[in-house]
Design a protein that fits this description.
heterodimer, A: 523 residues, alpha+beta, Multidrug efflux transporter AcrB transmembrane fold, Alpha-Beta Plaits, Gyrase A, domain 2, 3 domains, 6-stranded mixed sheet, 12 helices, elongated, B: 318 residues, 2 domains, 4-stranded antiparallel sheet, two-stranded parallel sheet, 9% strand
Chain lengths: 523, 318
């Protein structure tokens, strides 16, 4: 039970640092600047209030769309080589086509070869199916990489869109393979954000078809029917547009909401980059007098008639917008289109009052629970109980300090975790005190009773705490959000309580032994 | 220097006399718990069932006769309304909406808009909308967490002690777990992700308690090499009884305020923890120890202290 001066100083310093780290959480804003540490505990959304959204990236939809492009490519390739085909379709994740004349299968193979991609890293595998069928299957590596890439790019765009709305300190993180978890502190009504994030925002410009089609007849090849958007409560009609995309939104460099100087209507002004400007200029020059559809996510926003060639790369989208909807569309266009549709699969929103209530109850509960535990310890273990109680106070400070330092989120279950730590942290002291008592009863003097008491209790303490630590690590790895907060709080609590029980309380008892030199521990 | 004793010194309660009674009572409780889990069944929260739960704080006391038609007009299936907290607070629950994950989100938007129209200045205290994909996964993840935790405990105790200890502890933990599920069936507390955390926490506490008793058993196995296992286990439980009661007492006291004073969600969590502490503590004595006795009788190795090995072998030859 001997401690050198340096050991005492080191233990004291560790406690002091713990207390200093915890202090910013209890002092007022004004006193903060006098402290060496300013970090406060990071509150989870359930305590702070805010919105949590879980988004699923629909990588399958993106893959399907890509295959549709392949179908178009196959059609073009076979037509230019005059090979007749049947049954061109997407089936079981691959593009399949049947060549009508078995003698020309090899020619067809040749014609489709360029679509396979570079020899070193082929994007598709071209193989023969049953009955003269040719199959283009995306290679697994490429498909996986594309899906992965889609999620990464989606996160980037989600971040841009959220930043534009002015949410403070949003947290956007990938979850699993194809999910994005978004935390929006302080957001009470996430409807607008859900709308913004749920929109793919793929913008394209198409010429309207000039063919006249009998009502009810299917769209002629190369064209399709698109619904008009129902923006502003107006029922959208149906437009027959050419499938061919003349210019698309990827060439936009800027988009701003504004009002049309003549009509006073809300519009979105956009600017193309040089490639987009050139393409846009060429199309508008050739088609003056024809209607031109502006399509967002397969819905026609509006189809104005081209009055004159637009050569400067600047244009305007009108479509019965309100100020808010024009602004939102501008945000979407500036942020760029999502590579794949996003689905919102989970929402959890907590109002600020609920969280504040929980914190208040948590603080009261900790204070009362702590007092009860301290009372219990002092009643049953007297002086040794006082040491344990002091250890408990330091333990709680260190736990708060560690939470502040690591900026781990304190959540609602985390508060329960703190209380559990209050109860469990004295377990080590109870074990030690009981052991010391047992040794003393066997007739050992104070010093050796205390020494053996500590060393015999040690293996039990380590076993008991390690099992819990293992369990909390599992919880942390498998859980999410609030559950993780709980696991982190308990794990830190275990570490700090082991320190206070084994190191700090032991030191206190040693110092007391040195000063008081008791003759016997038991009366 | 030490205060009054929780348990008088030299207490020798012959716990193992009641080993059969303990196991039988535990089996009866566990079986009734499993029955409770199906009848009346667990009150599954939206975490596991999917659907929408909204806690709204209205400006005026809630008029259910006015609120109900407003929500039913939205055609979102059965609407469950429940008062909680003050008279101005209401919890609105919707069943899982048909039509995939996004349907839940649309339902939330509709309810928000309807409340805004008919009850201006309503504050939504909390909104939870969970689709089928997520609720299914949360459930599986919960089961996975419980399973992995059990296996980890088994492995740890097997490694640190002997297999009899590990098996006895794991079997006890499973029995504990069923009883906690039974508590959820009986009280109709909401069973959600927090409940899984509660179960894991109680398992953690329970294993902690068992480790302390086992540790003493292991130590006594070395000290009293010829003592019958039954007597030895009784002795170990009695020696650690004071600690067992003190620790469960302090943990109980620490959680108690939360169970008494906090709001709904946290109160249920805390109450289950309190019951769990009682279950976990008593199972160390009445279940884990008897199983260890059954498994260990005549099998548990008595480690021979180094140096005494020769002597031990010699004396047994007589």
């Amino acid at each position: 039970m001997f401690y050198s001066r340096w050991q005492i100083i080191a233990i004291g310093l560790a406690c002091l640092v713990g207390v200093l780290l915890a202090l910013p959480n209890v002092v007022g804003q004004n006193a903060l600047r006098f402290l060496p540490f300013e970090r406060q505990v990071h509150l989870g959304l359930d305590l702070k209030g805010g919105s949590y959204l879980l988004l699923q990236v629909d990588t399958e939809a993106a893959e399907r769309e890509r295959l549709e492009n392949v179908v178009d490519g196959v059609r073009r390739a076979l037509r230019t080589t005059n090979i007749f085909y049947l049954d061109l379709r997407i089936d079981r994740g691959a593009v399949r086509v049947k060549v009508r004349d078995p003698a020309r299968v090899d020619d067809a193979r040749q014609a489709l070869q360029p679509m396979v991609g570079p020899a070193g890293a082929p994007e598709y595998q071209l193989s023969a199916g049953e009955g003269g069928e040719l199959v283009l299957t995306p290679t697994e590596a490429v498909a996986r990489e594309r899906a992965n890439d889609a999620v990464t790019r989606s996160i980037e765009i989600v971040r841009r869109r959220i930043d534009e709305t002015g949410v403070n300190e949003p947290e956007i993180a990938r979850q699993g393979t194809d999910r994005i978890a978004v935390q929006l502190p302080g957001v009470q009504d996430p409807d607008r954000l859900k709308r913004l994030l749920g929109t793919t925002a793929k913008l394209s410009f198409h010429l309207l078809s000039q063919e006249t089609v009998a009502p009810g007849a299917p769209a002629p090849p190369g064209t399709e029917y698109l619904q008009g958007s129902s923006e502003g409560g107006r029922a959208g009609g149906r437009y027959l547009v050419q499938r061919l995309v003349d210019v698309d939104g990827s060439h936009l460099t800027d988009a701003q909401a504004g009002t049309n100087s003549q009509t006073g209507e809300w519009v979105v002004n956009f600017t193309f980059d040089s490639v987009g400007a050139r393409e846009f200029g060429a199309v508008t020059q050739k088609n003056v007098g024809r209607p031109f559809a502006i399509v967002l996510d397969n819905r026609v926003i509006s189809a104005p008639v081209i009055r004159e060639p637009i050569l400067g790369g600047r244009g305007q989208i009108s479509g019965h917008f309100s100020a808010a909807s024009a602004n939102d569309l501008a945000i979407l266009l500036r942020g760029g289109a999502l590579p794949a549709p996003l689905k919102i699969i989970e929402e959890r929103t907590v109002g600020p009052n609920l969280g504040a209530d929980a914190i208040r109850t948590g603080i009261y509960a900790c204070a009362i629970g702590g007092t009860l535990v301290v009372g219990f310890m002092i009643f049953f273990y007297h002086l040794f109980g006082v040491f344990a109680a002091f250890g408990l106070v330091i333990n709680l400070s260190m736990l708060m300090g560690a939470l502040s330092l690591l900026q781990a989120s304190l959540t609602l279950p985390g508060i329960v975790g703190i209380l559990l730590t209050v109860g469990m942290s004295v377990d080590a002291n109870v074990l030690i005190n009981e052991r010391i008592r047992e040794e003393a009863r066997m007739g050992w003097g104070p010093v050796s009773a205390i020494q053996t008491g500590f060393s015999k209790a040690m293996s039990t303490i380590i076993d008991a705490n390690l099992t819990t630590l293992v369990k909390m690590m599992i919880l942390f790895m498998l859980g999410s959000g609030p559950v993780r907060g709980f696991a982190v709080t308990i794990s830190l609590g275990i570490l700090t309580s082991m320190f206070t029980a084994i190191v700090l309380v032991r030191l206190l008892i040693a110092l007391w032994l040195r000063r008081a030199r008791p003759k016997a521990l038991l009366a | 220097m030490f205060g009054p004793r929780l348990v008088p010194d030299d207490t020798t309660i012959p716990f193992m006399n009641g080993r059969i009674a303990g196991l039988v009572v535990s089996a009866v409780l566990s079986i009734s718990s499993i029955i409770l889990a199906f009848y009346p069944g667990l009150n599954l929260g939206i975490d596991f069932r999917g659907g929408v739960a909204i806690e709204a704080h209205l400006k005026d006391p809630v008029d259910f006769n006015k609120l109900r038609p407003v929500l039913q007009a939205l055609n979102l299936g059965p609407v469950e309304l429940q008062e909680f907290g003050s008279a101005n607070d209401v919890e609105i629950r919707l069943e899982r909406q048909p039509g995939g994950d996004t349907a839940q989100q649309e339902a939330v938007s509709k309810v928000r808009a309807a409340l805004e129209r008919s009850f201006p200045d309503t504050a939504l205290q909390s909104v939870e909308a969970v689709g089928a994909t997520v609720s299914g996964e949360l459930f599986l993840n919960g089961l996975e967490a419980l399973g992995v935790a059990l296996l980890a405990m088994l492995a740890y105790i097997w490694f640190r002690f002997e297999w009899q200890f590990g098996v006895a502890a794991t079997a006890t933990l499973i029995l504990d777990m069923t009883k906690i599920v039974g508590v959820y069936g009986l009280t109709q507390f909401e069973f959600n992700v927090t409940s899984i955390v509660a179960i894991l926490t109680i398992m953690g506490y329970s294993i902690n308690d068992k480790v302390v008793v086992y540790d003493r058993v292991r130590e006594n196995l070395r000290l009293y090499r010829r003592m019958p296992l039954r007597e030895l286990i009784d002795r170990s439980i009695n020696e650690t009884l004071c600690r067992t009661i003190a620790t469960s007492g302090t943990v109980f006291l620490a959680i108690l305020p939360l169970a008494v004073m906090s709001a709904a969600t946290l109160r249920e969590f805390a109450t289950v923890l309190l019951i769990g502490i009682v279950i976990g503590t008593s199972s160390s004595i009445f279940i884990a120890a008897p199983i260890l006795l059954l498994l260990g009788e005549g099998r548990l190795r008595r480690p021979v202290p180094a140096g005494a090995a020769e002597q031990g072998a010699g004396s047994s030859a007589h």
